Amino acid sequence: MNKVFLLIIMFVASCYTNAQVVRTVELTKDDDLSVLLGDDKYKLEAVAVTGYLSHANIKVLNDCKLNGMLRKLDMSGCDVEDGLIPDYGFRGYMSSSAWFTSLKLPRNLETIGEGAFTYVHVETIDFPSTLRVIGNSAFFNASVLKSIIIPEGTIEIGDRAFCFCIVFVYK
C-alpha cells in the first residue's frame, strides 16, 4: 500500500514539474506585453497572442525567446502592426539556443522583414494566406526547419531566405 501511494505521489510530482507554463495574452495597441507577462516572462514556454501585436511587443517576445524558455509562439489570433514582422524582429544569435518548436505567424501578416528569424532554430512554421513577401535572409540558418508550405499568394522570396536550413521540404 505504501509503495502504491509513493508511486502516485512521484507520478503527480513528475507531471507537475514537466508541465508547460502557457499564457494567452489579449493585446491592444497601447498594451505593454512585458508588464502583462510580469515576473513569469522568462518562465513561459508557450505564448498565444491575440488582438494587436505592436513592433515594440515583438521585441518583448524576442527577449522571452532569447533569455527565457519560450519555445511555442502562436500569433495566429492577432494582427501585427503594419502587417509586418520587422527586419531582425526575432533575430537570434549564432551562439544562442533560440529555438521555436512551433511558430504560428499573425493572421494579417503580409511581409516578413530581412533577417526577421535569422539564427532562430524553428521546427514548424504556419504561414498565413495573407503572406506576400519573405525578405532576404528571413530564416537564414533556421537549421531544424522540417518543412514549410509557402502560401499561393506569396509573390517574393528574398535572397538566402532559407539559406542553411538543414532539413527542408518546400511545398
Task: Outline the structure in words.
By secondary structure, the protein is an alpha/beta fold. It is built from three helices and nine strands, in the order αβαβαβββββββ. It has helices at 2-18, 33-37, 55-67; strands at 22-27, 46-53, 72-80, 84-85, 99-104, 111-112, 121-126, 133-134, 156-157. The strands form two sheets. It has a five-stranded parallel β-sheet with strand order 1-2-3-5-7. A four-stranded parallel β-sheet has the order 4-6-8-9, with no helix packed on it. The radius of gyration is 18 Å and the shape is globular. The termini are far apart. InterPro entries: LRR_5, LRR_dom_sf.
* CATH topology grouping: Leucine-rich repeat, LRR (right-handed beta-alpha superhelix)
Q: C-alpha Rg, in Å?
A: 18 Å
Domains, number:
1
Helix content: 10-25%
Q: Could you write a compact summary of the structure shown?
A:
This protein is α/β, with parallel strands linked by helices and 171 residues long. The chain has helices at residues 2-18, 33-37, 55-67, and strands at residues 22-27, 46-53, 72-80, 84-85, 99-104, 111-112, 121-126, 133-134, 156-157.
List the SSEs and their pairings.
Elements: H1 2-18, E1 22-27, H2 33-37, E2 46-53, H3 55-67, E3 72-80, E4 84-85, E5 99-104, E6 111-112, E7 121-126, E8 133-134, E9 156-157
Parallel strand pairs: 1-2, 2-3, 3-5, 4-6, 5-7, 6-8, 8-9
